Description:
Layout: H1 2-16, H2 18-57, E1 60-64, H3 79-89, E2 93-98, E3 100-108, E4 111-120, H4 124-127, E5 131-135, H5 140-144, E6 149-153, H6 154-161, E7 170-175, E8 178-189, E9 204-209, H7 214-217, E10 222-227, H8 233-247, E11 256-259, H9 260-303, H10 305-313, H11 318-355, H12 363-389, H13 393-398
Parallel strand pairs: 4-9, 6-8
Antiparallel strand pairs: 1-10, 1-11, 2-10, 3-4, 5-8, 7-8
Helix pairs in contact: 1-11, 2-9, 2-11, 2-12, 9-11, 9-12, 11-12
Amino acid sequence: MLVFENIRLALSSIKSNKMRSFLTMLGIIIGISSVIAIASLGETSRAVIAKEFEAFGKNRVVIYMPYSEEMRDSDFFTLEDIEYIKTRFGDDIEYLAPSASSSSDISRGRKTGRVNISGVADGYEKMVNMNIIRGRFLTNSDVKSRRPVAVVDKRMAENIFGSIDVVGQTIRVSLDSVPTDVMISGVYEAEPSIFDSMMTSDSTTMYMPYTMFPSQINYMGMIDMKINEEKSSIEVGNQIANILARSKGREPGFYMMETTAGQQGSIDSILGTLSMAIGAIAAISLLVGGIGIMNIMLVSVTERTREIGIRKSLGARRKDILFQFLIEAMIVSATGGIIGTTIGVAISSSISLFLKIPPVISPAIVVIAVVFSAVVGMFFGLYPANRAAKLDPIEALRYE
C-alpha cells in the first residue's frame, strides 16, 4: 500500500507543477525519441536491403577472373569446367551457368526500344524469385538447342506490343551484331525496388539462353551460381574458386569471388555501426535529461523540506522518504520515455511513409527505451532522494 501512496503523492506533485515537470521531461523526451527514430530507421534500412538482396538471389555466388596483363586464354572458363563443378558438388549447387550479357535495340514493326539482354540457364527464375505472369521461363531444352526464345519484362511488352499477352510473338534484337528474330516464351513482372527512382533509363532486362552468346561462351570470364541454403555460400564458393584455379595451373585465390551473403553482411555492418554512432550521439541528450531531473528533484526537496519534516515526525522512516522521491523521479523519467517513444515511432513512420518503404519498429527497442528512461530517472533521482531521506526532522520542521 505504501508504494501506491508514494505513486499518488508523486503524481500529485507532478500535477501541481505541470510546466516544470514537462520541462524536466523534455531532455528525456528528445533523447528517447531520437534514439527510437534512429534505431527504427536503421532496422527499416536493414530490412529493405535484405529484401533487395533476396530479390537478387539469396546465397548467390559470382566467380570471375581478374583482368590483367598476365591473363592467358586458358584462364577463361569452359563448359567442361561448369559440368565438372556440377558433378563434383552435386546438391550443394542449385544453379550454375556462365554469365553472359549485352544490350540491343529492339523492334517490332514501327515500335522500337532498348533492352539489356542477360544470358542465363533454366532455373534462374527460382534463384531470383522471378514472378512469371505469362507463359514460361527458359527450359533446359532451350539452352541446349540454342533456341532463340526470350522472357521479357511486363513494361517492355506493354511499350512494344501494347499488351502483356505476347507469348508466341517475335521481336528483333541484335546478338553479336547479328539481327536475330526472337520468340517470346514468357513475361515476368519485376518487383518494385527502392532503386527504381534512381534509374534514369527506360531499358529493361530480357532473358535468353546463354548459349545464344557464342562469342562470350568461348571466353567465359564469369560464372554465376546459387549455393544450397543449408551450406555456407562463402565456404563453397571459395572451394570452387580454388578448384578452378588448380585446374588452370594457378595459385589458390587467383579467381575472385563475390557473394550476396558477404555483401549483405558488409552493408549490415556499416548500417549497424552508423546507427550505433548516431544513436550514441543522440543518447547524450538522455544524460542531459537525467541531470535536469536531478536538478529539479533537488529543488523539489528544498521546497518540500517542511513536508518531509512533518512526515518524519508522524513516523515516516528514512526509506519511506527515499522511496517517495525516488518513485517521483522514476515517474517523471518514465513518462518522458513514453512520450519520447511515441514521438520517435511517429517520426520513423513518417520518414518511412515519405520514402515509400515499410517501417520496421522492434517492440524490444520500445520496451528497452521506456525501461532505460525509468532507470535514468532512478539513477539521477537517487542523490536528491537520499538527501531528502537524511534530513533531520527537527531542522526540517524549522525550515521556512
